[in-house]
Amino acid sequence: MGVRVKVDTKKIAPKIKKASHLGLFALTQQVVKDSNLYVPMDTGNLMKSSLRASRFSDGKAVWDTPYARRLYYNPQFHFSKDVNPRAQGLWFEKAKSVHKKDWAKIAEKAVKNKL
Q1: Is the distance from CB of 20 to CB of 113 less than 8 angstroms?
Q2: What is the spatial distance between Cα 19 and Cα 45, in angstroms, rounded to a whole number?
Q3: pLDDT tens string 71-111
Q4: Mean pLDDT, to the nearest integer, of 54-82?
């Protein structure tokens, strides 16, 4: 005995698309927030650049100061811990290792709430 299900994709596709965009937006915001916990900080400009330059609806987390790349890819630097005691290079990688499961839950929850 089999079961056949017919799905009207014209009705459900827009809902799925909207829900997935919301999930991507929520996930990207959380990625930036959690990554900024590990961003080296002096004036705060590097962290602020992520809020200005990231495109949350496109899933793009960006730190766009002239020195962002140099700090990110040189974790061997001895970052000052005065302002941010967790400061380090590869801040996204650190945040991912700590928060990856939470990120999956946030994205899933955002999608489910919109469906």
Answers
A1: no
A2: 33
A3: 999 999 999 999 999 999 999 999 999 999 999 999 999 98
A4: 96
- Tell me the helix, strand and coil percentages in the chain, rounded to 5: 60, 0, 35
Nearest to 18 by CA among 83, 82, 111: 111
Residue 108's nearest CA partner among 33, 14, 22, 17 is: 22
Neighbouring C-beta atoms of residue 76, cutoff 10 Å: 6
34, HSE (Cβ side, Cα atoms, 13 Å): 19
The CA distance from 106 to 95, in Å, is 15
CB 49 within 8 A of CB 63: yes
Q: Enumerate the domain spans of the chain.
A: 11-114
**Residue 86 class from Cβ within 10 Å (0-12 exposed, 13-18 middle, 19+ buried)?**
middle
Rounded Cα–Cα distance for residues 11 and 75 (Å): 49
